[in-house]
Sequence to fold (992 residues):
Amino acid sequence: MALPDDFLPLDAIPEPLAAPLQHARERLATALEQADNLADMRQQEGPGESWAALAPQRREQLARVLAVSEFVAETLNRHPDWLPRLDAQGELDAAPDADALSEALAERLESAEDEAAMHAAVRRFRQARMLGIVWRDLTRPPGIDMWATAAAVTRLAETCLEQALSWLERHFEARWGRPGPRADGGEQRLVVLGMGKLGAGELNLSSDIDLIFAFPEKGETVGGRKALEHQEYFTKIGQKLIGALDAVTADGFAFRVDMRLRPLGDGGPLVGNFASLASYYQDQGREWERYAMLKARPVAGDLEAGAELLASIRPFVYRRYLDFGAIESLRELKAMINREVRRRGMQDNIKLGPGGIREVEFVVQAFQLIRGGRDTELQVTSLKAALERLPDLGLLPAAVVDELIPDYVFLRDLEHAIQALEDRQTQTLPAEEVARERVALALDMEDWPALTARLDEVRDRVRRHFDAVIADPEDADEDASAPAGSREREEWRALWRGEPGEEETEARLREAGFTDPAAACRRLRALRDSRQVQAMQRIGYERLEALMPLLLDAAADSEVPDVALQRVLPLVEAVLRRTAYLALLRENPEALEHLMHLCSASPWIAEQLARHPILLDELLTPDTLYTPADKARLADELRQALGRIPEGDEEAELEALRVFKHAQVLHVAASDIAGTRHLMKVSDYLTYIAEVILETVLAMAWKHLTRKHGFPLRRDGERCGQAPEFLIIGYGKLGGIELGYGSDLDLVFLHDGATRGSTDGDRPIDNAVFFTRLGQRIIHLLTAVTPAGSLYEVDMRLRPSGNAGLLVSSLDAFADYQRREAWTWEHQALVRARVVAGHDALAEGFDAVRGEILGRERDLEALREEVVAMRHKMRKHLASQGEDFDLKQDPGGMVDIEFLCQYAVLAMAHDSPALLQWSDNMRILETLEQCERLPAEDGERLREAYLACRTAAHRAALTGDPARGDNADFAAHRQAVIAVWRRLLEPASGDA
Fold:
């Protein structure tokens, strides 16, 4: 059939493409005529009538596609019957799903009796599917965009791999046999890992496919003519699979296969077993291989075993700490690419050139490598998925991602348009006029100049965002202050290396603001000449050499350079073996600045950072560093941190709890130093941290015990449920909401279980044993030492009968003890007791017991005598003997005010029940005023004195000083406290 001249509408076709389109129409007409003639000879229906029946809209699309893609034109010339078939199947408007693709190719391969037939079937299948993919990409029916195109090419590659592998396994089974089973009896197949864009699910139209082959375990094949070692069998199958896709035949090729990403590249074995691969990556894996493995994904063969393999090497890819060393490797890799681009004149390459596709990929992969071990949400192979998660993790502003995603899509659309011209793997902008017009039409741009103008804008934005993430911080500094900044840094570098003489070095340090340059010089020399530095590996030493000039510069810029250097150098020494932290500080000058500020202000913070270098991560986000989280946000952050840990990995959970606690306390201390938090708020935040951790630890311990032994019985005979039916009571500073930075936790454990009976699990234990073990488990989780230290020291001596009593009591036994056996000092302690974690209904029961005990009517004289006797006993053993004022124990100090509050509650709550509401001293004093049990003037003076003492003690903890004050500074406060003490507790005394 002859195609009429007006068969292809030219309305939307640019003038320069009209002639090439007319030529394509003529060739198609010839191909159709030949196909119809051949069909007539075979007495079959030819494709001509189906072409003539194409809808007008389909003809418009055909004109557009032919005007752009010579690949489509050539494919239709060879197979004119494919277009009507794809149209009838709906493949010109929507991509077939993975199951449909697999069924279709499997059906074609059923009749393939040899490799040549299999190769032909795979190639024709691929070409037909690519015809549909290119068509959809150029016509954009609903639901089709760049991501859909990339996903369709990926599904096609996966289908070809899986079906070709299955055919090869069946075809060669008689000769080579099938692999022997694994040690656990499971079957073995080849594992095909897709790398790069195949692993990401984002192949371009003419991508190579990067693969790695693996198999689970060594062994021999069974059932063949001759048994083969698994290594030999899987190598043969792998070679055949490469040929099935990569070999060029009369039908072309299916996919070019690149195996160079496997261990040792072309020089290594084609296939490796799991043990050898895990060993290789652990012992010899290079930085660029981490980069490559970000995209690794099982795509064919044994997918489940592939996931197992990737899980085993995940620690190689994703480090548990923030790995800023990775950014150096990415920077070096990008520099190498840039050199190659310049050498080969590839500035027009939209993948490798400046502001190109690779730079967007580097931005995303930098965050994955640096933070993926901590932020497991980034452990995804898809660039799009990872990029979209960066704002929620606070790693990139949403505005940046909102620019990068559409810019990346534009670059990939342009790449697809270039490749659609001839189905060639290229990312270079075309030089020929007609090709340029075709690409402009594919992207719906007015003309080539309009396209290049848009491209320039996109590349400029991408390059700017790339530089913000990847650029060397020293380069950025030099750009901002060159040449002065560069010259100054070189001077610091020479000083660190010890190149100037001692006098010149001290003069330079003195000029920079050091008051004791000789001491600073000695400290630097001691570090430089230390055994640890001399024994460093090359990459670690290079990182130290890069950091030290920046560190010295930052120390000189701090308020007290001598103190800053003295406190920061132990931290540097502590991380010499974990040089990723050196890279972190070098890559983040602002973090270095915060480090100097915090360490100058507080030796406690400096000590914490040196002991737990993982806390350096917190310096990267000043917004949260100086803004402690409230209780709800703390609970949410801890839940997220634990949610990233695989189920049952208790070691990782314990470590995560400790890192969380240390990080959150650092936030509080930083805000404290910055003066953004009042003392009371600081204690509130420290108490919130403890409460959230206790709630979490209780839930973890309950889950552990109930999984093992089942659920215990309640007192009413019913079974306990999933929520822990247990109470953790906080006493002392925790109960009084007055925690400090180094406070331990005074705890009492209560339950309301049945006195008899047992749990209902496979390994039942007595109720009492269950609750005792629960208490022991909680203490273990709080006090166990991991690489990140422990959570808290725990003091259980305030439980009924102290160390001689049971670790865990029932609520009834606790109440009975308080009524019958407790000493007055134990009732004093109960004033500061409150529920800090546990079951709501049980908490109400405890509050009722506490209210009953504290609200009793007492013999005031006897109460006064016992309280005073206890206080005098404490002063005798704990008060200072020197001239300074012990803020806590000396007369007129914090303990006197605490005893006053406790006495007031025990003496007056019977008549003033409002005093039972609070466990903290400040609000008890306020309530005494409101109930008119304490003159307002006295109440105010006591609060001021208590606040002054606590503030001084608090500062002393941060600065590492004893909790003591100058007598003259606290004389007025002490006199006020002593006056109230005498009036209430020792009216007959002439002296306290």
User: Anything to note?
Assistant: The longest helix spans residues 679-709. The mean pLDDT is 90. The first strand starts at residue 178 and ends at 179. The two ends are 119 Å apart (CA to CA).
